[in-house]
């Protein structure tokens, strides 16, 4: 009789447009049900909940908030502690910055056998407040002392955490975020036909895409300034922009303002949030990615899965996916619209290079980023962590 372990995943923000949310959803949906019983704790009513498998047990949290607030945070800590005590989880696996701190402390207070945290992004870069960033680094340092395993979605994130003296090298393991490759399969339609299904004009382009949240991290202002430079060199270029801002830090008004002032009103087509990301990506020639920091850059990987080259900023895990000029695309410094425009123009001008970079990037993604590979690696971490404990907390015998 195999032992079946109860695993709780906590995540503060769970929208469809979040790479961390996609990663978490895939993990709980694909865990081996003969060995694990998955639970998820988050604020109710978030869009990614619709894609959870029916047997994933939801624990709605009333008090967990992304913003820092002593009263709400204490209430959220107590709520998490109560849920962990009630269900006697064998593993608590946290994801975002806020639930990563509160969830790990709650698990420690509840004497949970295994505590795992995934670093999807660098928490001490996320705030515009230097004081809050320093506080997050301190909190991460404290929580790491009793975390059994720290999973990073890129080697670069591990290096940044260790540089801040957060945890020990042996606690870290890189587990790349996985993709469901069927979502990006070729539908047999030409790029022009795909653009027609998206309601885009029937013009040859070339077509360039930008996909992301309209917040400071994704830096859409650098994108739109770079787009203006690209248009000056290639007047026929068209741009597709997809995204929303579930974190309510929207720069969309500023994006429209810059685009209108530059005369790009007719050139940039705003589609809002799209779940059919494969259709969008296969309908463009190049993806532009302007983030100031990243865990890994999920949309970069999605573009390569669709065989599209990427002009991106050389930040964090993006530099592991893209070997500039050799695999995946061309990189430029963050916050540099001139560099981003030059990378884009090179990919548009040299189609043979663009195709070769996209092909090599796709091969790398297919080899390393399957969702199944990710989840099997996470399961192995769970087994290794629990093997070091004397007695599982709530595990039951099962087939």
Characterization of this structure:
This protein is an alpha/beta fold and 399 residues long. The protein folds into two domains: 2-178 and 371-398, Glycogen Phosphorylase B (Rossmann fold), CATH 3.40.50.2000; 181-368, Rossmann fold. The chain has helices at residues 19-30, 70-87, 97-109, 130-144, 155-163, 191-197, 220-233, 252-261, 277-282, 298-305, 318-321, 337-349, 351-368, 371-387; strands at residues 2-10, 36-42, 57-60, 91-94, 114-119, 149-152, 172-174, 207-211, 238-242, 268-272, 286-289, 310-313, 329-332, 396-398. The model has no long low-confidence stretch (mean pLDDT 93).
Short description:
The protein is an alpha/beta fold. It has 14 helices and 14 strands. The chain folds into two domains: 205 residues, Rossmann fold (3-Layer(aba) Sandwich), CATH 3.40.50.2000; 188 residues, Glycogen Phosphorylase B (Rossmann fold).
């Amino acid at each position: 009789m195999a032992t079946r372990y109860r695993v709780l995943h906590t995540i503060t923000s769970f929208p469809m447009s979040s790479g961390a949310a996609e990663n978490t959803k895939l993990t709980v949906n694909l865990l081996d049900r003969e060995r694990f019983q998955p639970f998820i704790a988050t604020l109710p009513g978030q869009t990614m909940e619709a894609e959870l498998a029916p047997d994933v047990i939801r624990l709605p949290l009333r008090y967990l908030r992304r913003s820092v607030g002593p009263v709400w945070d204490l209430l959220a800590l107590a709520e998490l502690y109560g849920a962990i005590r009630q269900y006697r989880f064998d593993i608590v696996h946290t994801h975002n910055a806020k639930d990563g701190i509160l969830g790990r402390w709650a698990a420690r207070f509840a004497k949970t056998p295994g505590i795992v945290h995934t670093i999807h992004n660098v928490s001490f870069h996320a705030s515009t407040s230097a004081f809050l960033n320093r506080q997050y680094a301190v909190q991460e340092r404290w929580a790491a002392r009793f975390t059994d395993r720290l999973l990073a979605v890129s080697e670069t994130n591990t290096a940044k955490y260790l540089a801040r003296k957060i945890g020990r090298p042996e606690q870290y393991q890189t587990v790349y975020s996985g993709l469901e490759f069927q979502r990006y399969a070729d539908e047999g339609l030409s790029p022009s036909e795909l653009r027609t299904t998206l309601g885009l004009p029937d013009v040859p382009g070339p077509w360039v895409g930008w996909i992301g949240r309209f917040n400071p991290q994704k830096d859409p202002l650098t994108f739109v300034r770079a787009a203006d430079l690209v248009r000056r060199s290639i007047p026929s270029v068209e741009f597709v922009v997809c995204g929303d801002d579930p974190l309510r830090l929207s720069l969309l008004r500023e994006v429209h303002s810059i685009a209108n002032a530059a005369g790009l009103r007719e050139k940039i087509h705003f589609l809002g949030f799209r779940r059919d990301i494969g259709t969008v990506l296969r309908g463009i020639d190049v993806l532009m990615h302007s983030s100031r920091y990243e865990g890994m850059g999920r949309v970069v990987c999605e573009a390569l899965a669709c065989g599209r080259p990427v002009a991106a900023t050389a930040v964090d895990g993006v530099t592991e996916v893209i070997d500039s000029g050799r695999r995946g695309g061309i990189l430029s410094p963050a916050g540099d619209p001139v560099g981003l425009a030059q990378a884009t123009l090179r990919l548009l001008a040299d189609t043979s290079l663009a195709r070769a970079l996209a092909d090599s990037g796709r091969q790398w993604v297919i080899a390393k980023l399957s969702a199944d590979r990710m989840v099997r690696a996470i399961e192995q971490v769970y087994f290794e962590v629990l093997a070091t404990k004397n007695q599982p907390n709530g595990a039951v015998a099962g087939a």
